[in-house]
């Protein structure tokens, strides 16, 4: 009789432990999916883009025309398609933009496209 309560406690403990395990594994998959180095590299590129746009348009952030340079969109295009898309986006810029375009294309080489949120 004394051994029954401890056996029941063990069963409950093990059942509770197994219930938490899948949640832990699921979290692990999310952290692997978005590699920290990839995220940092992407952030560095976005900050570089922001700084370069300030130089290209020679104005404060509020005065920069509404531009959205989508890195994922660029990664889906061919090299020439990327260059054409950037020239299209920067057509209002009066300054030479080839250095910016070449610099951005160089920086996104080898970058992987970020996929959308996981669907359950």
Task: Give a written overview of the molecule.
The longest helix is centred in the N-terminal third of the chain and has 31 residues, at 3-33. This protein has helices at residues 3-33, 36-57, 71-76, 79-89, 98-108. By secondary structure, it is mostly helical.
Mass-distribution shape: globular
In helices, the fraction of residues equals: 55-70%
Number of strands: 0
Q: Work out the strand percent.
A: under 5%
| Total helical segments | 5
Major beta sheet summary? none
Unreliable parts? 6-11, 13-21
Order of helices and strands: HHHHH
* Average pLDDT metric: 74
The CA-CA distance between the termini, in Å, is: 46 Å
| Structure class | mainly alpha
Radius of gyration using CA atoms only: 25 Å
In a few lines, what is going on in this structure?
Helix content is 68%, strand content 0%.
Key traits:
120 residues, mainly alpha
Question: What's the arrangement of secondary structure elements?
Answer:
Blueprint (H helix, E strand, L loop, with lengths): L2 H31 L2 H22 L13 H6 L2 H11 L8 H11 L12
Helix pairs in contact: 2-5
């Amino acid at each position: 009789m004394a051994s029954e309560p401890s056996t029941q406690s063990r069963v409950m403990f093990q059942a509770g432990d197994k219930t938490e395990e899948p949640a832990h594994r699921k979290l692990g998959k999310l952290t692997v999916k978005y590699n920290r180095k990839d995220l940092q590299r992407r952030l560095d590129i976005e900050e570089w883009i922001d700084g370069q746009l300030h130089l290209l348009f020679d104005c404060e952030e509020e005065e920069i025309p509404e531009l959205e340079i989508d890195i994922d969109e660029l990664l889906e295009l061919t090299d020439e398609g990327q260059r054409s898309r950037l020239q299209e986006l920067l057509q209002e810029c009066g300054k030479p933009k080839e250095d910016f375009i070449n610099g951005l294309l160089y920086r996104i080489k080898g970058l992987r496209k970020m996929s959308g949120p996981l669907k359950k």
